[in-house]
């Protein structure tokens, strides 16, 4: 790996670490902004407009994230092919909340830790 490629890899890891939390929050916000008007279409106009605005803002956040990661990638076309899921999420707004699926491994780790704590408490 060349020096610029190594620097880009480091920057990519930093970006992914720094953006993971905000992207999860954006996915939850999008899910709420998308679901609220569907669940109650008789909401006041200002609330429906706010939900629509939040949906667009979160989409913009996902676009910026993908653009930064694409810029930091060494082989951009290969990156897009490898990360087809992210391209699909950007193209189809309904799939944006699926970014929350990235939390599943984290939840299993947290659950495991809580299970160990519970076993310790029961043992004591």
Explain the overall architecture.
By secondary structure, the chain is an all-alpha fold. It is 81% helix and 0% strand. The chain has five helices and no strands. The chain has helices spanning 3-39, 45-72, 76-82, 84-91, 104-123. Helix 1 packs antiparallel against helix 2 and helix 3 (76-82) crosses helix 4. It is elongated, with a radius of gyration of 19 Å.
Question: Structural class, please?
Answer: mainly alpha
- Strand proportion, as a percent range, falls in under 5%
Order of helices and strands: HHHHH
Number of strands: 0
What's the alpha carbon Rg, rounded to whole Å?
19 Å
What is the tally of helical segments?
Answer: 5
Q: Please tell me what the overall shape is.
A: elongated
What is the first-to-last residue Cα distance?
A: 52 Å
Task: Bin the helical content.
Answer: over 70%
Task: Offer a concise description of the structure.
The protein has 124 residues and is mainly alpha-helical. It has five helices and no strands. Helix 1 runs antiparallel to helix 2 and helix 3 packs across helix 4.
Keywords:
single chain, 124 residues, elongated, mainly alpha, 5 helices
Break the fold down into its secondary structure elements and pairings.
Layout: H1 3-39, H2 45-72, H3 76-82, H4 84-91, H5 104-123
Helix pairs in contact: 1-2, 3-4
């Amino acid at each position: 790996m060349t020096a610029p490629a190594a620097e880009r890899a480091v920057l990519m890891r930093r970006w992914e670490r720094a953006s993971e939390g905000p992207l999860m929050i954006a996915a939850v916000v999008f899910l709420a902004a998308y679901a609220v008007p569907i669940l109650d279409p008789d909401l006041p106009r200002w609330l429906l407009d706010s939900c629509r605005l939040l949906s667009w803002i979160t989409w913009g956040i996902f676009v910026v994230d993908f653009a930064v990661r694409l810029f930091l990638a060494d082989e951009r076309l290969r990156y897009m092919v490898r990360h087809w899921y992210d391209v699909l999420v950007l193209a189809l707004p309904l799939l944006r909340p699926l970014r929350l699926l990235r939390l599943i491994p984290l939840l299993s780790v947290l659950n495991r830790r809580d299970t160990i704590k519970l076993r310790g408490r029961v043992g004591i």
